[in-house]
Design brief:
Blueprint (H helix, E strand, L loop, with lengths): L4 H19 L3 E4 L2 E4 L7 H13 L1 H23 L1 H12 L4 H19 L2 H5 L2 H10 L4 H17 L5 H11 L7 H32 L26 H18 L2 H5 L3 H10 L8 H6 L10 H18 L4 H24 L2 H6 L8 H11 L7 H14 L3 H15 L3 H16 L6 H9 L4 H29 L1
Antiparallel strand pairs: 1-2
Length: 479
């Protein structure tokens, strides 16, 4: 039952979508006015076809491929014997101060997520921090909340993340620093509430273990995914640490759109200077490097290359050769195959919402209904519900904005406030929705059932929702 729990959650969302497609007509917006069409019901063959289409769509396959490469990366790290040494040393250092490590982990993931909104590159770090947290004796829920949960909270409180605030700026014509004070304050409050909540859970876990309660879990005995306790203390840890940090920094820098997001064009100018450099009229560097976009425009394709190169470089430096190298790489990949499959499955609704050739969807009809409840005037409550529905259907925030920018820019004017409201509600939904790709990947990675996650997260969801309400009220009162 536990193993199929997450599949059931994803399947229920899919079936609800199918039912709604039979009931609610599709529609599209033009200048804020809905053009309503007939219903576009999904039939039997559609139910069978769309999961296959999702599994063969290049965008989702690429995400799954990166997840597999993360597994291969850690598989090779384990083979060196140095990775286990790093995990052991870090866990020993914080053995008596586990709460400090949890707080550092949460703040680090949340901060990087808030600044970049790049969830997939940040997921590369999750296995390491999970290994340390589990080594410290905390359970899997604490480990997931401290890593994946922190990434999602960082998105919810995004400050300069291009995939959140950059698109708000792009679609609504606002400035990247509009409402920045409110966003920073919200990020700090939401993150600190998460830290307090995780520390509360961790203390509760220790209390249960100490008193020998029936339901206490001995997670210290649980096998840690993508980790082998194979220590070779004689080898230096420094090359592995430097390469790993450089890989993460390069991924975050190269995948953040500096030009559009912050108006920084240094990477574009650098790329132009290199590619246009010629010797006797011959573009030597352009031909040697090949086709490559400027830093800031890299995607998951380049992320896959970065991961693979880093993996092979570490294998070379630590003398992991031939059969051992590929066996360890494939062992890690094999571990992440189920995670990759679930990550693809979480995108079924997202594919369905973007499969219409005309752009008409029943979500537009739902949006029009909620907005017209108040005669087209902006209402926080109805728009909050709309953003929550949108979060379930559109797990990628820019697509939610794209679906609603027409009526928003036609009917309303307070774009900065609306953008922040949408990002907070969407981020909150991603903490619980079975369509949230990184959440689903994290749940499968740690083999946590959806029910178990919900039982442990619902209190934080209420606290975060209360924080959102308070910030909305304060922003309305302060103008």
């Amino acid at each position: 039952m536990k193993k199929n729990n997450l599949w059931k959650a994803i399947g229920i969302c899919f079936l609800v979508f199918v039912i709604l497609s039979w009931i609610i007509p599709s529609g599209s917006f033009t200048n804020g006015v809905l053009t309503k069409n007939a219903t576009e019901p999904l039939g039997f063959f559609d139910i069978l076809r769309y999961p296959i289409v999702t599994a063969s769509t290049s965008l989702f396959v690429l995400t799954a491929f990166v997840i597999l490469l993360i597994g291969g990366f850690y598989g090779v790290l384990n083979q060196t014997g140095v990775y286990a040494n790093i995990v052991e040393k870090v866990s020993d250092k914080f053995k008596k101060n586990g709460a400090i490590f949890l707080a550092i982990t949460i703040f680090l993931f949340a901060l990087l997520s808030s600044l970049t909104a790049l969830t997939l590159p940040l997921f590369i770090m999750v296995p390491f921090f999970v290994a340390v947290i589990l080594k410290l004796g905390y359970n899997k829920i604490v480990a997931l909340l401290s890593t994946v949960g922190a990434i999602l909270v960082g998105n919810m409180g995004s400050t300069y993340g291009f995939n959140v605030n950059g698109y708000i700026t792009y679609f609504f014509g606002t400035g990247i620093n509009d409402t920045i004070v409110s966003r920073i304050l919200f990020f700090l409050v939401a993150t600190n509430v998460l830290i307090g909540f995780v520390l509360f859970l961790s203390e509760k876990q220790k209390s249960n273990a100490t008193t020998g309660k029936k339901n206490a879990k001995k997670d210290t005995a649980v096998e840690i995914p993508l980790y082998e306790n194979h220590v070779v203390a004689k080898k230096s840890m420094l090359p592995m640490i430097i390469i790993s940090i450089f890989m993460i920094v390069l991924a975050l820098v190269s995948m953040y759109n500096w030009e559009i997001g912050l108006g920084v064009d240094v990477f574009n100018n650098m790329h132009t200077s290199i590619t246009e450099f010629q010797i006797s009229g011959y573009p030597i560097f352009a031909n040697i490097i090949g086709t490559v976009d400027p830093l800031g425009y890299w995607s998951s394709y380049e992320l896959a290359i970065i991961l693979f190169v880093a993996t092979m470089l570490i294998a070379w430096i630590y003398d992991v050769k031939g059969k051992e190298k590929w066996q360890s790489f494939l062992t890690g990949v094999k571990t992440m195959v189920p995670v990759a499959i679930y990550a693809i499955a979480a995108n079924i609704l997202f594919l369905l919402m973007n499969s219409s050739s005309t752009g008409a969807t029943f979500f537009h009809t739902i949006a029009d209904f909620l907005m017209q409840l108040t005669n087209g005037k902006f209402n926080v409550f109805s728009f909050g519900i709309l953003s929550a529905f949108g979060g379930i259907f559109y797990n990628d925030f820019p697509y939610l904005i794209n679906a609603l920018y027409d009526p928003i820019t036609t009917l309303y004017t307070n774009y900065g406030f609306i953008g922040m409201l949408m990002q907070m509600i969407h981020g909150l939904v991603m903490l619980i929705a079975p369509t949230s790709v990184i959440l689903v990947a994290g749940l499968k990675y740690l083999d946590i059932s959806y029910t178990e996650w919900f039982k442990n997260i619902w209190k934080y969801l209420l606290l975060a929702f209360l924080v959102i309400v308070i910030f909305i009220v304060l922003m309305l009162l302060l103008g």
